[in-house]
Amino acid sequence: MNECRASTAATLPATVQAPSQDVITRALGALGIAGIDRWLRDDRALVFPSPVREDGPGWRAEVDLPYGVTAAQVIERREQLASGLRRPLGAVWPEPVTHEHAGRLELWVGRADIAVAKPPPWPLLRSGQSDEEIASFLRTVWGRRGDRYSELRARQTKPLPKVEMSHIGG
Questions:
Q1: Taking Cα atoms as reference points, which of 53, 74, 72 lies closest to residue 62?
Q2: 39-71 residues labelled b (16+ CB within 10 A) or e (exposed)
Q3: CATH 3.30.980 fits 21-110, yes or no
Q4: Secondary structure letter of residue 112 according to DSSP
Q5: Exposed, middle or buried: residue 129 (CB in 10 Å: 0-12, 13-18, 19+)?
Q6: Quick one: pLDDT at residue 101?
Q7: pLDDT band of 140, cuts 50, 70, 90
Q8: 11-36 burial code (b ≥16 CB/10 A, e <16)
Q9: Share of the chain above pLDDT 70, in %
Q10: Nearest 10 degrees: CA dihedral of 64, 66, 69, 75?
Q11: Percentages of the chain per state (helix, strand, coil), in multiples of 5
Q12: What is the mean predicted confidence (pLDDT) over 32-39?
């Protein structure tokens, strides 16, 4: 019986693998941002407030950058970040999380460049439902949303007579 052994471990292409915290840390460390360089050189780990998670056709990660480093500094180096992640530029989208602090980075990494990816068909248009069924579905979805501030606020406002645009110069 002949045994055949592989000489190197098999690796999955970057488009299949979720970017791990180590891969993201390595990519951020390659940007040449002094604050990140010092932090990693001192053998300190970057903080990921939540695990890297699947998000649509890609993955999402949040990173607390070292003190004094802002998300804007990373965003300015998006091309280098994409290189460090071994992804096309259109598959790497860093954003600030300003409601937390200037050093919180949200990073979305796609499986493919979103500019060339084919969008999936919208299921409502392909399912043969009637206009009323689609309208009912949309009303249900809209009614469950919590970000309907304008609509909810309008319900609490005293009804006022409508102003004709021609009366105010419109």
A1: 53
A2: bbeeeeebeeeeebeeeeebbbbbbbbbeebbb
A3: yes
A4: S
A5: middle
A6: 93
A7: confident
A8: eeebeeebbeeebbbebbbbbebeeb
A9: 78
A10: -40
A11: 35, 15, 50
A12: 96
Domain ranges of the chain: 21-110, 123-157
Q: 91-119: per-residue pLDDT in tens?
A: 999 999 989 999 999 999 999 888 887 77
The residue count for the chain? 170
Query: Please, which residues have CB within 8 angstroms of residue 75's CB and are 6 or more apart in sequence?
Result: 94, 95, 96
Q: Which residues have C-beta within 8 Å of that of residue 96, sequence separation ≥ 6?
A: 70, 71, 72, 75, 102, 104, 105, 106
pLDDT at residue number 68: 96
